[in-house]
Amino acid sequence: MNSPGPRRILALALPAFGVLVAEPIYLLFDFAVVGRLGALALAGLAVGGLILTQVSTQLTFLSYGTTSRSARMHGAGDRRDAVGEGVAATWLAVVIGVVIIAVMQVLARPIAQVIAGGDDIAREAESWLRIALFGAPLILISIAGNGWMRGVQDTMRPFRYVVVGLIVSGVLCPFLVHGLAFAPHMGLPGSAVANVAGQACAATLFARTLLREKVALRPRLSVMRAQLVLGRDLIARSLAFQACFLSAAAVASRFGAASVAAHQLVLQLWNFVALALDSLAIAAQSLIGAALGARRTEDARDLAWRITRWSTVFGLGLAVLFAAGYRILPGVFTNDLAVVERTHGAWWFFVTIVPIGGIVFALDGVLLGAGDAKFLRTATLAAAIVGFLPLIWCSLAFDWGLPGIWAGLTAFMLLRLGAVVIRTRSGRWAVPGSDLQVVDKER
Questions:
Q1: What is the pLDDT of residue 331?
Q2: Which parts pass through the membrane (predicted)?
Q3: What's the angle, vertex CA 58, arms to CA 260 and CA 192, rounded to 5?
Q4: I need a labelling partner for 185 at 20 to 30 A (CA). Which of 202, 254, 309, 337 fits?
């Protein structure tokens, strides 16, 4: 079997990029529709959406962990067990999703009140959240579907399914929110209903694809347990990211409204760059897992550095573009001179970490594809504790402002860079075989 070339890598990466950016694009549309209702409804959507996002993003192991396990089996020529990982992940998605509905329906009001800081906004957020929560199992089914389908190197159909779901939500949203044509005028809750309808369409398409594979659909507890063990490490890694970005937002808020706005502006640009770079990381995850499952360790090592070179060049190109837009881009998003001025304090740190991210995200994908989640968990936690958090709290204590915050983010990325490069060069991650439990024992 030949090592995949540029065309194959792009065939996996481009649809994955589409899946990654589709949801943020829809959220901007949703905000624009709800924004016509006024600031209170928009604030309610922001708070409710934040709560639901924080819950669902902690469960991305259903995607990333499933891809790692499924890709190894796919590489070993065992499609039945590769798809079986998707069955197990889907059962977990349903069970966890139902638990989220039950628990969060009880906690929706107090959580909304804590985050909103005001009864009016909390009421709006609660009204949206109570409906949107019924989409939690549907979101997780789609996440699981993305996971196993990436594992068998099919990224185009998940892209289509996600786009269909978002189109349904996008069409329904203005009709239900504003009562257009014969639709009821639901206001903010109409946005939640539209979201759940779109999520139901996408989840149905993923479930139908799983059924058509004609594999056993009974829950296999041993596989589900193994996925949860892998998920434990990925959740810990995700919590380290959340601690960093929530701390950054909290410290930025202490420097005033202009600093918060500037921080969020640069952070959103960074999030977009991360999504773009992550598409190559997803391709790496799928291809590396398959190569190791097929016991082609030399191909896996070669592929790891080849995709990393691609991602580095991509990151450097983006960094050059953002460096050239130093004076222009902030003004595209705001005409507030104070905000524009504050963005300049963070801008060069942002430009610096873009090419670093090109290397880090690619090697993250390599190590995730190899199922090396324990190492990634430990490295990310260490980078957050040693590099990011001390600098960010020093930024608050010594009034360093946004440069201090983004210096912390830069240190975080540099420490992660050193960790993943050393790990990848060591070759300890490249253990062949289709059973990740056996592979973990051999590391």
A1: 82
A2: 38-65, 86-108, 128-149, 161-180, 192-211, 234-257, 269-292, 313-333, 345-367, 379-398, 404-422
A3: 75
A4: 202
DSSP of 132-152: HGGGHHHHHHHHHHHHHHHHT
CA pair distance 147, 371, nearest whole angstrom = 13
Residue 44 pLDDT greater than 60, yes or no: yes
- CB contact at 8 A, 124 and 41: yes
Torsion of CA 98, 103, 109, 114, to 10 degrees: -120
Structure tokens at 44: 């309610």
Structure tokens at 11: 């065939």
CB atoms within 10 A of CB 107: 12
Residue 83 has pLDDT above 90, yes or no: yes
Range with the lowest mean pLDDT among 77-86, 337-346, 355-364, 421-430?
Answer: 337-346
Residue range 306-364, pLDDT digits in tens: 999 999 999 999 999 999 988 888 887 777 788 888 888 889 999 999 999 999 999 99
DSSP secondary structure of 213-244: T----S--HHHHHHHHHHHHHHHHHHHHHHHH
Instruction: Compute, in degrees rounded to 10, the torsion defined by CA atoms 410, 413, 419, 425.
Output: -110
**Which of 112, 107, 105, 69 is CA-nearest to residue 87?**
69
443 confidence band (pLDDT: 50, 70, 90): low
The pair phi, psi for residue 399, each rounded to 5°, is 60, 50
What 8-state DSSP symbol labels residue 4? Answer: P
Is residue 282 within 8 Å of residue 365, measured between CB atoms? yes
More confident residue, 56 or 279: 279
Tell which residue, 274, 228, 287, has the closest CA to residue 416.
274
**Residue of 388, 397, 318 whose CA lies nearest to 358:** 318
* Largest Cα–Cα separation, the chain: 64
Local confidence band at 153 (pLDDT 50, 70, 90 cut-offs): very high
pTM for the full predicted model: 0.85
Please state, in angstroms and rounded to a whole number, the distance separating the CA atoms of residues 211 and 197: 21
Within 10 A of 112 (CB to CB), how many other CB atoms are there?
A: 25
pLDDT of 437: 63
CA 295 to chain centroid: 29
Compute the distance between CA of residue 163 and CA of residue 166 in angstroms, rounded to an integer: 5
